[in-house]
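HOLO CASE FILE
Compound: guanosine-5'-monophosphate
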Amino acid sequence: MAGCIFCDIVDGKIPAKLIHEDHLAVAFHDISPKAPTHLLVIPRQHLSDLDEAKPEQELLLGHLLLVAKEVAAKSELRGGYRVVINRGADGGQSVDHLHVHVLGGRPLAWPPG
Ligand code: 5GP
Ligand code: ZN
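Model generated. Tokens follow.
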């Protein structure tokens, strides 16, 4: 989608440090990491947020989680990691292209702020 920074990353118009790419998803390092390892997994297809996902996209949503655990394994997050989807203003979403955060490399506090 025009004007979407994550679509621009998918299209290679904005550089990103990619860790995974396949026909459905792309994963890359967050530009402003909140933990020693902070990765984002996104669908190639533009979806503004989780609420936009339709029942017929359940395979895509499952795929994003499988990619999340693959990039966590690739990053050797043996102590564990956290997978987060922020949705909307109260959820802390700042980029309107669905993305799954993978955070690790240190103990993460719970609950989040
Ligand atoms: P949100 O706050 O929407 O859940 O997460 C958006 C994330 O995207 C933030 O953690 C932010 O640091 C990251 N981000 C924003 N712009 C860019 C960018 O241009 N490149 C990369 N790699 N990450 C970005
Ligand atoms: Zn997009």
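CASE NOTES: The two ends are 31 Å apart (CA to CA). The pocket of guanosine-5'-monophosphate (ligand 1) is lined by residues 5, 14, 16, 28-32, 40, 86, 92-95, 99 (CB under 6 Å).
CLOSED: yes
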